[in-house]
């Protein structure tokens, strides 16, 4: 009896640490909340609890306050569902679900852009906050193609039609909009050749840059480097390369010497040309030389200085000589034709004023605008020519 | 390079220059539409009528007319020369076809210039005005293919230099200037092609595939390299590639020899990115013009009277 009393007394005063109370979950509060909300569980047998889960997501941090109380934070990513407590004395699940509410999202913000100035078509990285879930990003009202890298990083492509100047960026996400017009400047897609005689000289310089870049690249393609090119064609492409580089460097030096701002080094886009293919190279060379010849004819009337006109004429006839040979490479006896001169037809220029009458054998004169419409297809964005100053 | 000052200068001798700049645009428009509306036969008169209408009150300045008439004489020299090609033997069919195309162009140039000049045009010369043997120097000028092509090259290269040198003289008239530059380019194409024929040989059916052989008297490049060894007939054609006379030349216009490598004050051979280029490239890259007097002396070699070209 004494022994049993002692035993009974012992049980009363010194709670047995071994599982003697079945784990149960009576209630929890609050009944709902967003991720991070602290929830208090009431029940029994919580001592030694090894896991608390909400729905299917385990709470990474929970606190066993006492045998009847546990607190935990709603884990990120948890969905509405029952709460389950697992302890050495059993597993208990709430009778009612805890409702996970949507986390209120803050509006995104745009902090910086890299690069800070970009051409249309370029990829720009934005740094900011709350980019997750951004659904649209516009630049000056134009939709953009973009990728959300993470909550603070987003990349997008400047629309090819974007106008130069400060970029008005608007990012729209679930929490609102970010508006920024200070972090990015859109660079002009065209470059002006200028006006007056300097403008005409820069216009010629631009065309010579294009031709020089073309022949430089021709000499790296397998049409030129291969064994099947004829001696005549190889010799011609060597000379054309020399001549056009000399023309380019001449204009650069002469324009600077004249005290006129020199056009920048242009970036070409020759993706449409197959430098390994004779037909592609010759047809492009033909287009460039015919274009150059027509350009010089059409530009003469805009030159004021007799000395500059005479200089331009010195190059113009060399371009015409080039054109004739290249055309004969393409097809013998096409050194001149109705496509470039009004031999038996008229209408070789889209600007009627530049045509001689049929039967005059005048070579077509192309206006600067007509010329750059073609030349610009071989120039990268940012290097496309604006010749509106020549008039 | 002060455009307003130049306009003001022109205005002193031509008070209506400002109006004229506009009316010339109208002339261009009229020219463009002609081709579709008129037959070739009616064309010369019609073109002339347009120019007469545009310039009726203030005729084209005498100097421009003189330049155009001089160009017309050169075109007659070429046109009659190519019309005589039928008597030449030893030409491939391809080369005969090429010459026929050039003949068409030169005849067209005659027609066009006569139309532009209208009543101010010189009387049309007969073929007898020209002596393609150069008074016996080239007895087979119109029968031997090699001699014929040598002369053809000489005429075309001279023509290119003549139009180039004359361009600054007609620049006050934008319509005439553009037409002159257009003909200039066509002559250069001809020169390029004739040179192909010469380096590939008169009997070749693929003229473009000939390989140039220095010193380029017999097998020239399509462009002028140095002085091309004196041209197609060294000793006689040297002047075609030599220097002109700078007396009365426009400011900063110099009629240099074709071997010139200093352009606009820039020494080409010292330019960046040209190291390793052959020395010849620097003269090839630029053609040179000639003054009217020098061209006349060259052309008079082929004048029966010896002074048709003045």
Quick rundown:
The complex is a heterodimer of chains A (391) and B (310). By secondary structure, chain A is of the alpha+beta class.
The strand count of chain B comes to 2
Q: How far is the first residue's CA from the last residue's CA of chain A?
A: 123 Å
- Give the C-alpha Rg of chain B: 20 Å
By DSSP, the count of extended strands of chain A is 23
Largest interface: A-B, 75 and 88 residues
How many discrete structural domains of chain B? Answer: 2
Strand content of chain A: 15-25%
**Largest sheet: spatial strand order of chain B:** 1-2
CATH homologous superfamily designation of the largest domain in chain B: Ferritin, core subunit, four-helix bundle
**Regarding CATH, which class of the largest domain in chain A?**
Mainly Alpha
Task: Indicate the multimeric state.
Answer: heterodimer
CATH topological fold name of the largest domain in chain A: Ferritin
- Envelope shape of chain A: elongated
Fold and architecture overview:
The complex is a heterodimer of chains A (391) and B (310). Chain A is an alpha+beta fold and 391 residues long. Chain A has 7 helices and 23 strands. Chain A has 3 domains: 16-100, Immunoglobulin-like, CATH 2.60.40; 109-186, Immunoglobulin-like (Sandwich); 190-386, Ferritin, CATH 1.20.1260.10. Chain A has helices at residues 2-13, 196-218, 222-225, 231-257, 278-299, 306-330, 368-375; strands at residues 24-29, 32-33, 38-44, 51-54, 57-58, 62-66, 69-73, 83-87, 90-93, 99-100, 109-114, 117-118, 123-129, 136-139, 142-143, 145-150, 153-157, 165-166, 169-173, 176-180, 185-186, 190-192, 384-386. The longest helix of chain A has 27 residues, at 231-257. The N and C termini of chain A lie far apart (123 Å). Chain B is mainly α and 310 residues long. Chain B folds into 2 domains: 1-58, no CATH class; 61-223 and 292-302, Up-down Bundle (Ferritin). Chain B has helices at residues 3-13, 17-37, 43-55, 62-83, 93-117, 145-166, 174-200, 279-284, 292-299; strands at residues 262-263, 266-267. In chain B, helix 2 (17-37) packs antiparallel against helix 3 (43-55) and helix 6 packs antiparallel against helix 9 (292-299). In chain B, 49% of the residues are buried. Chains A and B meet through helix 4, helix 5 and helix 6 of A and helix 2, helix 5, helix 6, helix 7 and helix 8 of B.
């Amino acid at each position: 009896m004494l022994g049993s009393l002692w035993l009974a007394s012992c049980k009363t005063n010194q709670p047995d640490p071994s599982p003697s109370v079945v784990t149960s979950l009576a209630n929890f509060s609050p009944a709902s909340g967003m991720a991070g909300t602290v929830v208090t569980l009431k029940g029994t047998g919580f001592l030694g609890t090894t896991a608390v889960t909400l729905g299917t997501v385990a709470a990474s941090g929970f606190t066993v306050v006492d045998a009847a109380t546990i607190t935990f934070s709603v884990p990120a990513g948890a969905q509405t569902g029952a709460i389950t407590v697992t302890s050495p004395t059993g597993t208990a699940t709430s009778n009612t679900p805890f409702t996970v509410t949507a986390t209120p999202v803050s509006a995104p913000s745009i902090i910086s852009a890299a690069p800070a100035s970009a051409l249309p078509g370029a990829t720009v990285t934005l740094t900011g906050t709350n980019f997750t879930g951004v659904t649209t990003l516009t630049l000056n009202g134009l939709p953009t193609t973009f990728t959300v890298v993470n909550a603070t990083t987003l990349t997008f492509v400047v629309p090819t039609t974007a106008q130069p100047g400060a970029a008005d960026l608007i990012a729209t996400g679930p929490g609102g909009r970010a508006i920024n017009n200070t972090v990015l400047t859109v660079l002009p897609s065209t470059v002006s050749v200028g006006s007056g005689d300097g403008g005409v000289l820069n216009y010629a310089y631009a065309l010579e840059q294009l031709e020089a870049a073309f022949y430089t690249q021709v000499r790296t393609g397998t049409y030129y480097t291969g064994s099947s090119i004829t001696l005549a064609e190889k010799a011609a492409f060597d000379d054309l390369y020399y001549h056009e580089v000399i023309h380019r460097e001449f204009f650069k030096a002469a324009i600077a010497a004249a005290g006129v701002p020199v056009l920048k080094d242009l970036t070409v886009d020759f993706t449409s040309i197959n430098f390994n293919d004779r037909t592609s190279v010759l047809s492009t060379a033909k287009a460039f030389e015919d274009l150059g010849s027509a350009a010089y004819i059409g530009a003469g009337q805009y030159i004021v200085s007799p000395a500059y006109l005479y200089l331009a004429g010195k190059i113009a006839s060399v371009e015409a000589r080039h054109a004739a040979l290249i055309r004969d490479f393409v097809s013998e006896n096409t050194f001149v034709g109705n496509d470039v001169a009004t031999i038996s037809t008229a209408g070789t220029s889209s600007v009627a004023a530049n045509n001689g009458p049929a039967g005059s054998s005048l070579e077509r004169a192309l206006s600067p605008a007509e010329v750059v419409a073609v030349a610009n297809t071989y120039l990268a964005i940012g290097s496309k020519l604006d010749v509106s100053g020549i008039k | 390079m002060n455009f307003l000052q130049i306009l003001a200068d022109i205005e002193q001798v031509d008070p209506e220059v400002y109006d004229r700049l506009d009316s010339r645009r109208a002339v261009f428009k009229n020219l463009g539409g002609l081709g579709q509306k008129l037959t070739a036969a009616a064309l010369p008169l019609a073109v002339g009528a347009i120019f007469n209408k545009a310039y009726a009150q203030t005729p084209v300045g005498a100097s421009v007319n003189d330049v155009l008439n001089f160009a017309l004489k050169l075109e007659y020299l070429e046109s009659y020369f190519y019309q005589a090609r039928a008597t030449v033997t030893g030409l491939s069919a391809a080369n005969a076809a090429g010459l026929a195309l050039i003949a068409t162009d030169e005849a067209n140039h005659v027609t066009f210039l006569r139309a532009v000049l209208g009543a101010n045009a010189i009387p049309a010369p007969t073929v007898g005005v020209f002596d393609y043997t150069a008074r016996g120097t080239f007895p087979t000028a119109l029968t031997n293919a090699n001699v014929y092509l040598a002369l053809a090259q000489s005429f075309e290269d001279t023509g290119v230099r003549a139009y180039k040198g004359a361009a600054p003289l007609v620049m006050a008239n934008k319509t005439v200037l553009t037409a002159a530059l257009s003909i200039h380019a066509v002559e250069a194409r001809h020169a390029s092609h004739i040179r192909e024929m010469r380096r590939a040989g008169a009997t070749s059916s693929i003229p473009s595939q000939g390989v140039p052989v220095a010193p380029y008297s017999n097998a020239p490049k399509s462009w002028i390299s140095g002085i091309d060894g004196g041209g197609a007939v060294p000793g006689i054609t040297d002047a075609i590639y030599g220097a002109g006379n700078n007396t009365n030349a426009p400011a900063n216009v110099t009629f240099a020899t074709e071997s010139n490598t200093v352009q606009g004050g820039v020494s080409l051979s010292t330019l960046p990115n040209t190291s390793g280029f052959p020395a010849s490239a620097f003269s090839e890259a630029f053609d040179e013009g000639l003054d009217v007097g020098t061209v006349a002396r060259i052309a008079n070699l082929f004048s029966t009277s010896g002074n048709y070209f003045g």
